[in-house]
Design brief:
Layout lengths: L1 H27 L3 H33 L7 H4 L2 H42 L2 E4 L2 E5 L10
Antiparallel strand pairs: 1-2
Length: about 140
């Protein structure tokens, strides 16, 4: 079971990396709807990974059992060690990909916030912004 959980967890992380790279590409091309559509898929993958990681933790605890004096590395086979190393590498890759994605998200967010502030200026009360006041060009007289 340990091998299955490791392989499946790595697969989830690889899928998250691929989807995040697609999100970055689509953000660059202003295909924001595609990014929004993938959000649920990515959330489901994260939940799946968390569940598998929990099952993996339980399997490792069972493996260690009463042998608390032994090192985990000594109890794992070569295949398990290789998969754990691969998971570590993939998680690092996901972290870097998410950093890159976050930079684009912040840039786009700042752009839209600035645009909103220009169309609907905010009034300042001290250091706090209050609600946007309607822009004069958007006022309608009945």
């Amino acid at each position: 079971m340990l091998l299955h959980y490791l392989s499946s967890s790595i697969n989830d992380v690889e899928n998250l990396i691929e989807l995040t790279k697609k999100d970055i590409k689509d953000i660059k091309e202003a295909n924001h709807e595609l990014v929004f559509e993938r959000t649920k898929i990515k959330n489901d993958l994260v939940k799946s990974f968390e569940n598998k990681k929990s099952l993996l933790d339980n399997e490792l605890i069972k493996l260690v059992g009463d042998k608390k004096d032994s090192k985990l590395e000594d109890m794992l086979g070569d295949k398990e060690k290789d998969l754990l190393e691969k998971m570590k590498i993939k998680l690092s890759e996901l972290k870097e990909t998410n950093k890159q994605y976050a930079k684009f998200v912040v840039i786009i967010s700042e752009f839209y916030n600035t645009l909103l502030d220009r169309i609907f200026p905010c009034e300042m009360e001290g250091y706090h912004k209050t609600h946007h006041k309607p822009a004069s060009i958007l006022k309608v007289r009945a």
